[in-house]
């Protein structure tokens, strides 16, 4: 019975009269946007996102409850959630990931305590579908009708990117504050880029919102989110971190962000903030930690307690470290890094993609002592 409400809402996803429009079909008119989307994480599916697939399978090899956000276009979403059917590589509504069709046919977002739900607009039988967006005077198309819908600046991102709580009411994902609107996401993650929305720029718009959705995977983009400032007072190093993002530094439970600090003297490291694992430095290691009945667990689906060391939206923290007395010519290197799959997660789910477990630099600050 716990899925009854979910079924009622998901029941509006597809009707027998509705025809799904695959991502590849969008390329005919929106080639630039299609290529941007292909490089985005939205284009990733259960089959192409190794970390997501292996975490989902470690939670439940029968039910694919993650489908609500990770496979929302599925034409058998109820069967996936209940475990009657499994993801199928031959089904385009499964392999299209968070598809163009799905994102542009959301009618409204149903807010809920555990997680929000995107509710699709019902499409009229024997008529071309209606796509929604933020454009004023949207272009006409023989494939679909187009309308401007105010929820695309207010709610549309909140359907999947707001929050998620497990069955024990433990937060396992948190990205948006209560009342925060989608426009704050769009301004950063859909920046304006040159070119119209169609191959032929009929309305001479000259630019469009990028559908590449740059984020933590983009080297240049991730440098913009946090500022690092350094100061030394006697033998104490002060590292000031300022989160310029409208969401916390850590939003996903599989990830970790951490400081790597080194004092270098004549080419040799004479001090560092951890020896083996960055988690040794508790103040400089930002991540979720979960427990079930007092015992640590990695996969948060069954957790009964959670703890998070974070840097909240627009927050500044000053971290202090006792370091050796500096000498002329010494260099202090401070780097903020991300691991898309933190160490304890990688121990539980075997990952072939080494990019997921390799620390990636977000930003570095260097201070030379004179």
Explain this structure to me?
The chain is globular. It folds into two domains: 4-209, no CATH class; 219-368, Immunoglobulins (Immunoglobulin-like, Sandwich). The chain contains 13 helices and 18 strands. It is α+β, with helices and mostly antiparallel strands and 370 residues long. The strands form six sheets. Strands 11, 12, 13, 14, 15, 17 and 18 form a seven-stranded antiparallel β-sheet that branches. Strands 9-10-16 form a three-stranded antiparallel β-sheet, with no helix packed on it. Strands 1-2 form a two-stranded antiparallel ribbon. A hairpin with a 6-residue loop joins strand 1 (106-110) and strand 2 (117-120).
Model regions low in confidence, pLDDT < 50 over at least 5 residues: 1-12
Strand content: 25-35%
DSSP strand count: 18
Supply the helix-strand structural class: alpha+beta
Radius of gyration: 23 Å
Major β-sheet, in short? 7 strands, antiparallel
Shape: globular
Helical proportion, percent range: 10-25%
Please tally the helical runs, counting DSSP H or I stretches of 4 or more residues. 13
C-alpha end-to-end distance:
69 Å
How many structural domains does the protein architecture include?
Answer: 2
**Mean pLDDT level:** 92
Secondary structure elements and their pairing?
Layout: H1 4-10, H2 23-26, H3 31-38, H4 50-59, H5 67-70, H6 77-82, H7 92-95, H8 100-103, E1 106-110, E2 117-120, E3 130-133, E4 145-148, H9 151-154, H10 158-161, E5 163-165, E6 171-174, H11 183-189, E7 192-194, E8 207-209, H12 219-222, E9 226-233, E10 236-243, E11 256-265, E12 268-272, E13 285-292, E14 295-297, E15 305-309, E16 316-322, E17 331-339, H13 343-348, E18 360-368
Parallel strand pairs: 3-4
Antiparallel strand pairs: 1-2, 5-6, 7-8, 9-10, 10-16, 11-12, 11-13, 11-17, 13-14, 13-15, 17-18
